[in-house]
Design goal:
The protein is 54% helix and 6% strand. The chain has 161 residues and is mostly helical. Helix 3 crosses helix 9 (148-160). The longest helix is centred in the N-terminal third of the chain and has 18 residues, at 31-48. The two termini are 19 Å apart. It binds iron/sulfur cluster (2 copies). One iron/sulfur cluster is lined by residues 58, 61, 63, 104, 106-107, 112, 114, 118-119, 122. One iron/sulfur cluster binds next to helix 9.
Length: 161
């Protein structure tokens, strides 16, 4: 498996066309059939990659964060909730809140310094294990160039879809 982040960033540009072909094939499959095919690959790749050696999602993502999570995170920062929101949270057009500092203010090297209270959206990333993966291929494509799990899952899927 490829885990070098620079190689993945370069390869993902070169393989963009192949990704497009994969998406077309997936479009023709049923949601259940694709989940049954993809999830064992997701499990295998996820087991083979050590996120503590990577941390790349925490450099590029803007994870969703709930009010309850903000309370815990602001306490970790020893900041008031108001100051925490002012400095580290933004809201999108739908009024959904997310951590907006890039890299994430809680990233220490490749490791999350608030692992036990990290937002649910961080724990869920890259989300390939959830049912209905077919409907999240846009998100998969966005993460293909930054996440070794996503990159390697896509590369393996090309051989079996
Ligand atoms: S809270 Fe932790 S897991 Fe989430 S983006 Fe920040 S460093 Fe990464
Ligand atoms: S989820 Fe992906 S980008 Fe994030 S640390 Fe793990 S391998 Fe790296």
């Amino acid at each position: 498996m490829i885990t070098d982040l620079k190689t993945i960033a370069e390869q993902s540009k070169l393989l963009k066309g192949e990704f497009g072909l994969l998406k077309q094939k997936i479009k023709r499959m049923s949601v259940t059939t694709f989940d049954l095919l993809a999830h064992p690959v997701v499990d295998e790749v996820t087991k083979g990659i050590d996120c503590t050696q990577c941390g790349n999602c925490c450099r590029f993502q803007e994870p969703g964060v709930t009010e309850e999570e903000m309370v815990k995170l602001s306490a970790e920062k020893r900041m008031s909730l108001v100051d925490f929101k002012k400095n580290h949270v933004a809201w999108d057009k739908e009024n959904v809140s997310f951590l907006c500092t890039k890299p994430c203010t809680f990233l220490d090297g490749n490791i999350c310094s608030v692992y036990s209270v990290r937002p649910g959206s961080c724990a869920d990333f890259p989300g390939l294990h959830r049912p209905g993966l077919k409907w999240r291929m846009k998100q998969v494509e966005e993460n293909y160039s930054i996440c070794p799990i996503v990159f390697n899952v896509v590369e393996k899927l090309k051989g079996i879809v």
